[in-house]
Design a protein that fits this description.
Distance between the termini: 49 Å
Shape: globular
Number of helices: 10
Structural class: mainly alpha
Number of strands: 0
Order of helices and strands: HHHHHHHHHH
Largest sheet: none
């Protein structure tokens, strides 16, 4: 039996997908932490060039350099200290060098990525849909983490996600190509219209352009038929969480709140339950 045939064996498929998700989750932590800093470095360099000023000397960041290290004692993280979830447990959530507490985010992101990948394998099996789903899950988790930290949804992630959605649906993996193209356009224009209506009415910006592009990407992945469901799910969950945080005084009323995580969450629900939820939604409307 060839190695490709091994994926037809359920236990092998589920185990390998879970392990792959955990490893990818570890890399996702790196992207969430470093990509915004890399963007800031690029912006500073561009501003200095525009103002004809010398570029400040600083260590250039990339996703692979410099190697991962403790921010407290600057000790390089060894390979055995970088095993997803397990290393966190063995180290009891602290740096092996200085004892500085390690953020719970790292194992949470790894575990979420692993479990979502495993669930995708359970739902889609060894199909092209599974490969596409794993890619989408990775992108959405990265975008969620970055948006929570910085209120940014980088073009370097949202635009490739949009194009990948269109390419995936060339083969009709999640919807027809026609529906994907219309979904991308409608996804962008719907939030763009709401943005400008809100701005003209209140004089304030209600959301960022990254939100338009993320919804356009989800439209490219799932087609225009899924957009009402995605918008309703993300809006209701976002409103509920936002009001709850204000009531609990953990978020100021006028402080910006990222909308990307709610769009990403709605995208994941659509990935796994989209057909059933859309059917129920249209049934409630009598359509």
């Amino acid at each position: 039996m060839g190695w490709l045939d091994s994926f037809q064996t359920p236990w092998f498929l589920y185990t390998s997908t879970l392990l792959l998700g955990l490893v990818v989750g570890s890399f996702i932590n790196v992207v969430i932490l470093r990509l915004p800093r890399m963007m800031e470095q690029t912006w500073r360099a561009e501003c200095c060039e525009l103002l004809e000023q010398p570029t400040p000397e600083e260590t250039r960041l990339s996703l692979s350099s410099p190697p991962s290290h403790c921010p407290g004692c600057n000790t390089r993280i060894r390979p055995w200290q970088n095993i997803p979830v397990i290393s966190f447990l063995l180290l009891r959530g602290r740096c092996g060098g200085c004892g500085m507490a390690i953020s719970m985010r790292y194992p949470v992101v790894e575990l979420c990525t692993g479990l979502l990948s495993l669930y995708a394998a359970l739902v889609f099996g060894p199909t092209a849909m599974l490969v596409a789903a794993l890619v989408l899950i990775g992108f959405l988790i990265v975008l969620t983490g970055i948006d929570i930290d910085t209120c940014l949804l980088p073009d370097s992630l949202t635009l490739p996600l949009l194009w990948l959605g269109l390419l995936v649906n060339l083969a009709g993996v999640f919807c027809t190509l026609e529906s994907a193209v219309i979904g991308a356009a409608m996804g962008y224009l719907s939030l763009w219209s709401i943005y400008w209506l809100f701005r003209l009415t209140t004089g304030k910006e209600g959301m960022g352009y990254g939100d338009f592009k993320l919804l356009a990407a989800l439209g490219a992945w799932f087609g225009w038929e899924a957009l009402p469901l995605i918008i309703i799910l993300s809006s209701f969950v976002g409103a509920f969480v936002g009001i709850s945080l204000v009531i609990l005084r953990r978020h100021k009323r006028d402080a910006p709140m990222p909308f990307g995580p709610y769009l990403a969450g709605a995208g994941l629900l659509t990935l796994f339950y989209g057909e059933a939820l859309t059917t129920q939604y249209y049934a409630l409307l009598g359509l």
